């Protein structure tokens, strides 16, 4: 029937596009059902104090536990979910689940951990996002100050004003907003100045180059110094080695996150982690 739809359609079903087209059609339908079938799960990665190694917060990271394909990482379905809009219900599930699980964890232990949830721009900029956040907090009993939202610079693509207004409202409720993957996207220093945010997360792509590239090191040091002058804290993501850890500590980075301290782990494993994670081997 491809012929009936004309030449463009015929081309569409041939060549290199075939596999990815079919894949995304399948994936799209499967994504739809995955939520109903409860196939998503959250792992949590600690963020530690750069000096003491004390766990300060955790970041929720979604995984798709696919019945046939096994554990699928978010890089393989979040971009599609963003394209189809399915990120909105999925993101809402993540928000509710993260609040619920961390509220339960905090209630069962001495340690009170804030949780950071990644929010896609599409989800963040939806009219009812604030209601969705309120719902998640209310349903879980998690106090607002234990919730942090991670957004990337791409929320600013359609203009800063509505974003600033929303962030102001969120912070008046005690909910904090962090800028994720800072420096990789639509960066403008004047936006950083205007955003009511308290934290920037330096992308992993900078961290593993600081030791070998002077210019990358200059950016990293510059961001840290600038953020501190704006009363923001800086997290370095993707710390894997002792050298990277030492370098970021020396540069006055406040918080560290990476495989060196802990990979993202299931809630049961998180519950058993010690209060301090000084880094493998130290
Ligand atoms: P992100 O928010 O920047 O999260 C950090 C990613 O880096 C995570 O990958 C984490 O596992 C990985 N990582 C942490 N430390 C290290 C390290 O030392 N070395 C290396 N090589 N990697 C490290 P993950 O879990 O695969 O997530 C990838 C991205 O998918 C996230 O990047 C985030 O943008 C997105 N994502 C994950 N969960 C969600 C979600 O619930 N909602 C939305 N909208 N996006 C999500
Ligand atoms: Mg993140
Ligand atoms: Mg990040
Ligand atoms: Mg990143």
Key terms for this structure?
globular, binds magnesium ion, 12 helices, 9 strands, 282 residues, 8-stranded mixed barrel, binds ligand C2E, alpha/beta, cyclic-guanylate-specific phosphodiesterase, 44% helix
Describe it.
It comes from Marinobacter persicus. Helix 4 packs parallel to helix 6 (129-140). The chain starts with 6 loop residues before the first helix and ends in a 10-residue tail after the last helix. The protein has twelve helices and nine strands. The protein has an eight-stranded mixed barrel with strand order 1-2-4-5-6-7-8-9. The chain has 282 residues and is α/β, with parallel strands linked by helices. Bound molecules: ligand C2E and magnesium ion (3 copies). One magnesium ion (MG) binds at residues 59, 118, 150, 180.
Short summary of the structure?
The protein has 282 residues and is of the alpha/beta class. The chain is 44% helix and 18% strand. It has twelve helices and nine strands.
């Amino acid at each position: 029937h491809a012929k009936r739809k004309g030449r463009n359609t015929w081309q569409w079903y041939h060549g290199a596009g075939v596999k990815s087209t079919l894949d995304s059609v399948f994936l799209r339908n499967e994504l739809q059902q995955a939520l109903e079938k409860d196939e998503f799960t959250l792992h949590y990665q600690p963020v530690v104090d750069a000096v003491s190694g004390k766990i300060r917060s955790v970041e929720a990271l979604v995984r798709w536990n696919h019945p046939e394909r096994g554990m699928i990482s978010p890089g393989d379905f979040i971009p599609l979910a963003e394209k189809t809009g399915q990120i909105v219900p999925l993101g809402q599930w993540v928000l509710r689940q993260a609040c619920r699980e961390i509220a339960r964890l905090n209630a069962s232990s001495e340690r009170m951990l804030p949780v950071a949830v990644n929010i896609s721009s599409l989800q963040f900029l939806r009219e009812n996002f604030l209601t969705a956040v309120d719902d998640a907090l209310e349903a879980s009993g998690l106090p607002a100050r234990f919730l942090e939202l991670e957004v990337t610079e791409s929320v600013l693509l359609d203009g800063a004003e509505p974003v600033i207004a929303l962030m102001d409202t969120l912070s008046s409720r005690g909910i904090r907003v962090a800028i994720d993957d800072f420096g990789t996207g639509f960066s403008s220093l004047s936006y950083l100045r205007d955003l009511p945010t308290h934290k920037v997360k330096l992308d992993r792509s900078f961290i593993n180059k600081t030791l070998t590239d002077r210019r990358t090191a200059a950016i990293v040091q510059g961001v840290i110094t600038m953020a501190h002058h704006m009363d923001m804290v800086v997290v370095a993501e993707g710390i894997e080695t002792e050298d990277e850890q030492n370098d970021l500590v020396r540069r006055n980075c406040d918080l560290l996150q990476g495989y060196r301290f802990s990979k993202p782990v299931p809630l049961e494993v998180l519950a058993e982690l010690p209060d301090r994670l000084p880094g493998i081997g130290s």
